[in-house]
Amino acid sequence: MNRLVVQLTTDEPEKVAAALTVSMAAVASGADVALWLSGPASLLAVPDQAPDVDLEYAPGLEEGLAAPNTVRVCSQCAARRGLRDTDLREGARIGGAMELVEALLTDGTAAVTY
């Protein structure tokens, strides 16, 4: 199975839309997709703190975050924002650098960063 790691490092609506669209397309094509949220994007996984990133012709945040096989929030980014797993949307959890490195080094994995 093909794997794709999508790392989103911003809450800029155009880049969020691109990351979610690519993630959803990859899932639809049968890929195993891991979405990693870091920096300002970390708050996208927090229901009551997510910035408004809705754009015309782009997937909604709920739909976009539900599509990937895994959604991870950078552990350092979460700590800086005082976030715990219990603060995150269903299906999202905090993940450390080692987990990201393991995902990136798995054979058959491609990666894209926004």
Explain how this protein is built:
Strands 4-3-2-1-5 form a five-stranded parallel sheet. The protein has one domain: Hypothetical Protein Ychn, Chain: A (3-Layer(aba) Sandwich). The two termini are 23 Å apart. It is an alpha/beta fold and 114 residues long. The protein is 32% helix and 23% strand. Strand 3, helix 3 and strand 4 form a beta-alpha-beta unit.
Distance between the termini: 23 Å
What is the average of the pLDDT values?
96
- Backbone shape: globular
The figure for the number of domains is: 1
CATH-assigned fold name = Hypothetical Protein Ychn, Chain: A
Overall number of strands: 5
CATH architecture title: 3-Layer(aba) Sandwich
Helical stretch tally:
4
For the biggest sheet, the summary is: 5 strands, parallel
Order of SSEs, N→C?
EHEHEHEHE
Q: Tell me, what is the CATH class?
A: Alpha Beta
The named CATH superfamily: DsrEFH-like
- What ranges have pLDDT less than 50 throughout 5 or more consecutive residues? none
Given helix and strand content, the structural type is alpha/beta
Quickly list its features.
single chain; 114 residues; alpha/beta; Hypothetical Protein Ychn, Chain: A; 5 strands; 23% strand; globular
Entry summary:
With 114 residues, this protein is α/β, with parallel strands linked by helices.
